[in-house]
Amino acid sequence: MAVINSSNFLLYKDQTPLGHSTSTIVNFDVDLPEATTKDSEGWKEYIAGLRSGKIKAEGLTDYSRTLNFAQLADLVITRQKINFYFKDFISNKHIVAGTGFVDAVSEKAEKESAVSFQLDITLTSLASFSNDRLWNTIFDRWNEIALEWQNV
Which residues contact 84 (CB under 8 A, 6 or more apart)? Predict the structure, then answer.
């Protein structure tokens, strides 16, 4: 089994990476309501219920970055749903994509330490879990290329 370097993985809001991140955790869960009947021969049985997911990230604050603490806090205040990508930015072989809400963001400034932030995203859908780009992001990239070409 190949060793995977976690430094290659970044969390993106649309096409903007979350800069200076030090760690990211992606969790997926499914509720398992009990469905035991007399036919189960004494074994508990379950059915797959509601799915949920959460992304947690930590990083060092840099207000000169495109995506910084103030913008993340605005996402909480405005209740804006965001598209996210958690991917290997070197080879793009591992991509998790979906939508969600930033439900918590905090910033910590301790004595003699770098200022850091913590971010929680609650997922509302998971668009893909694959090694391929999503078809709708391809159109976004084509639009960006068209705009760049017009500005030449």
Answer: 11, 12, 13, 55, 97, 98, 99, 100, 121
Dihedral, CA of residue 71, residue 139, residue 8 and residue 88, to nearest 10:
120
Q: Calculate ∠ Cα 130-91-24, nearest 5°.
A: 70
Q: Cα(58)–Cα(106) distance, rounded to whole angstroms?
A: 10
Q: pTM to 2 decimals?
A: 0.71
Residue 61's contacts (CB-CB under 8 Å, 6 or more residues apart) are 20, 68, 69, 107, 114, 115, 116, 117
Low-confidence ranges of the chain (pLDDT < 70): 1-9, 89-94, 127-152
3-state class of 144 per DSSP? Answer: helix
Phi, psi of 140 (to 5 degrees): -60, -45
